[in-house]
């Protein structure tokens, strides 16, 4: 099933652009991806636009019309923070089905603050489901179960900023110290302000095509999408996974959605976690970077914070994680953030990541997770 | 009690049975699927596990153990109405003896005083007055007091 490849990627910087029309932000990413692919807009046969928070219905169609009216179909996709990965799966499926050869996938968002009204109406009235809380309960449980500390979570943020400060497309361009993270205000125990990703603006675009098209366009460094999976909760839902679920049973074995998606993705790719050389994982806050590394099977449960201490996940480590700086440093425009991961892994695999370049990765994994038990996992191969 | 007397009403139907008389502690309402036996907090019309619509209403146990927690140090976005001045509030997952874990506000807001595994008990607290002057009640869990 290795018949779908990434032909080009492009990103508009993630940051704050209050004066800029989101359509123009998206178009910049699309034009960069087209240039990168050496294809023209006329070659695109199908398009997907991810937008989650930005309240402008029809924005994707408007963007396409501005780039060029070629009459192609486009769908707007919202899979919360998993939108980018979810779209990559759809694009792969569209090509595998034979309905088209070249797909443009792009995401755009402007995200100003905390999500409003994530939970049920009564939960929101009580302030029970503001996103920091749901993620923080998981962080607290991780500390309790495995012996990690607030300092370990701070170390994740420090790594994110160390990497992201070398990424000109990231919101934050500064490094942080463990002390600075621990001294930043407590938002939701045990997580401090600098442990969290920051909602911001941005766009990313990826051009996906069949292997046949890749040959036709004589692509020099196509990256294969070896697997792409989207997953929602499978009963019983994993206890305390961020969601509006008011209760769950605890007597039966429950699997986190990321773990379920990863298992399917490895099977589809014919690869295992031991084959992965670089990873971009959903780091809504520092603790979930560790939780997701473990749910992807990249190490044993409870081991990620120890490996982090040893530098295993550094850019120069054995298994670099979030060399882009992750959304802790890039910020998170949810419609675009998943494709931002794909851009980074493609640059890493092509050896185009500059000062963030990891050691010649052959297999990379992208993982996104969103509100209400939703995840997507994609495995990319050189 | 006359018609004009102030009443206590639950935040939502199917969520809790408020105490009706002295000595009655009230309880949270759950559903048990008659087909597969799964339990849910808050009355359900359909089983999330097997899609059966044959569920019976049950009373959930009033005590449990703290499974995981957090304390929110900033107000959640609307429609949450923070008190003035804002007071941090605790939240947690509570493990009931029947094998159900449910999400609840906690009366305790000091992370140092919250421990995974600690015994908690259900209480009801006034949230606000509704337009008819009734007290709208919510459920919370508090550290269990020694008998």
A few lines on this structure:
The complex is a heterodimer of chains A (382) and B (147). With 382 residues, chain A is of the alpha/beta class.
Detailed description of the structure:
The complex is a heterodimer of chains A (382) and B (147). With 382 residues, chain A is α/β, with parallel strands linked by helices. Chain A is built from 13 helices and twelve strands. Chain A has helices at residues 22-37, 59-67, 83-96, 121-125, 131-146, 150-164, 178-183, 211-216, 257-269, 286-295, 304-309, 326-330, 334-350, and strands at 4-15, 46-50, 74-77, 102-110, 186-188, 191-192, 201-210, 223-232, 247-249, 278-281, 363-370, 374-381. Chain A has a nine-stranded mixed β-sheet with strand order 3-2-4-7-1-8-12-11-10, with helices on both faces. Chain A has a two-stranded antiparallel ribbon with strand order 5-6. In chain A, helix 2 links the parallel strand 2 and strand 3 (74-77). The two termini of chain A are 14 Å apart. With 147 residues, chain B is an all-beta fold. In chain B, 0% of the residues lie in helices and 44% in strands. Chain B contains no helices and ten strands. In chain B, the strands form two sheets. Chain B has a five-stranded mixed beta barrel. In chain B, strands 2, 3, 4 and 5 form a four-stranded antiparallel β-sheet that branches. In chain B, strand 7 and strand 8 (100-106) form a beta hairpin. Chain B starts with 7 loop residues before the first strand and ends with a strand. At the A-B interface, helix 4, helix 5, strand 5 and strand 9 of A face strand 4, strand 6, strand 7 and strand 8 of B.
